[in-house]
Amino acid sequence: MPTSAPAFSDATASDSALRRFLHGLPGVDTVGLEARAASLGTRSIKTTAKAYAIDLAISMIDLTTLEGADTPGKVRALAAKAVHPDPTDRTTPRTAAVCVYPDMAATAVAALAGSEVKVASVATAFPAGRAALDVKLADVRDAVAAGADEIDMVIDRGAFLSGHYLKVYEEITAVKAECGSARLKVIFETGELSTYDNIRRASWLGMLAGADFIKTSTGKVATNATPANTLLMLEAVRDFREQTGVQVGVKPAGGIRTTKDAIKFLVLVNETAGEDWLDNHWFRFGASSLLNDLLMQRQKLSTGRYSGPDYVTVD
Predict the structure, then answer these.
(1) Which of 152, 156, 212, 293 is catalytic?
(2) Residues 101-121: pLDDT tens digits?
(3) DSSP line for 261-280
(4) For 38-65, what is each residue's pLDDT tens digit?
């Protein structure tokens, strides 16, 4: 049992104990959850608060490229954009991280040397997670050896949906052990978990196993981050800290493309988990196109007009 949650050592003592604990969590009120998420999404944000929210959202982005056609040049260009998102305005915050495949981690590390931007690397046979454990752990070791500051792992959804919770738990703890000082983000692929009850169970399972972050999605399936599934995960990290004293971050990923969307998620954070999570150490956006819209909205607030189409780079 990881030292992160000793209060729950009995819950993880066996497969049956873990099943009892996870299925003993309160059931999710679907109507209530979705209604609250929708209600919080209607909050009005005024100009000064909007400027603050835009800068905060920029600072929380994991600027991501996870394509088969990724090249060292593309990764270096993305790193340059992460450090100076708007080269014409050096007051623009840098992004939190650049997220790449393990074979591109060393390139990202070199490109970001001397900056405060982190290098995150997906691992464990991302995005499907269909590989033997030793292969997954080798994937993690390669990324860490290349200098990655953060590891984004995917859980075995097949094992989870089959009720083999201890297998998932032990895989997460094994990956955590390979991370060393790198922070671990555990991806659930919420669009494949089918129910909110499963998302709540996965959230607690990940936190019990020592996740530093819990993450909604890979961005590679039809349903990714939504206000409702993110709200549910924010409730989980809030409740987990209340019971253990351990704070865990949250990362919605996939489908968050506009400033309006990003601000809705920041309202969810503030109203559910609280101000302690309004920091890029505890909340991230997994995004590629979101940054461009944030930059355009930021300039609109500054100059009173929108930029031309060539103002921001096309990722």
Answers:
(1) 152
(2) 999 999 999 999 999 999 999
(3) HHHHHHHHHHHHT-GGG-ST
(4) 999 888 787 789 999 999 999 999 999 9
**Of the listed 212, 251, 264, 293, which one is catalytic?**
251
Decide if 315 is catalytic: no
Q: Check residue 30 and give its pLDDT.
A: 97
Following DSSP, what letter does each residue of 192-221 receive, concatenated?
Answer: HH-SHHHHHHHHHHHHHTT-SEEE---S-S
Specify the pLDDT at position 307: 65
Give mean pLDDT, residues 217-240: 95
Say yes or no to pLDDT of 1 above 60: no
Side chain identity, residue 243:
Q
CA distance 35 to 196: 14
Q: Are 56 and 246 in contact (CB under 8 A)?
A: no
Name the 3-class secondary structure at 61: strand
Are residues 126 and 152 in contact, defined by beta-carbon separation less than 8 angstroms?
A: yes
- Whole-structure pTM value: 0.93
81 is catalytic: no
Q: Which of 291, 294, 286, 292 is nearest to 62 (CA)?
A: 286
Which pLDDT band holds residue 24 (cuts at 50, 70, 90)?
Answer: very high
CA-CA distance, 280 to 278, in Å (whole number)?
A: 7
DSSP string, 222-247: SS---HHHHHHHHHHHHHHHHHHS--
Q: Give the position of tokens 């990764």.
A: 75
Q: Looking at residue 189, what DSSP letter applies? A: -
Residue 311's pLDDT is 53
User: What is residue 127's three-state secondary structure?
Assistant: coil
Residue of 215, 261, 264, 293 marked active site? 215
Mean local confidence (pLDDT), 125-145? 96
Is 251 in the active site?
A: yes
Task: Give me the phi and psi of 224, to 5 degrees please.
Answer: -120, -130
Q: Is the pLDDT of residue 3 over 50?
A: no
CA 34 – CA 36 distance, rounded (Å): 5
- Could you report how far apart the first and last alpha carbons of the chain are, in Å? 42
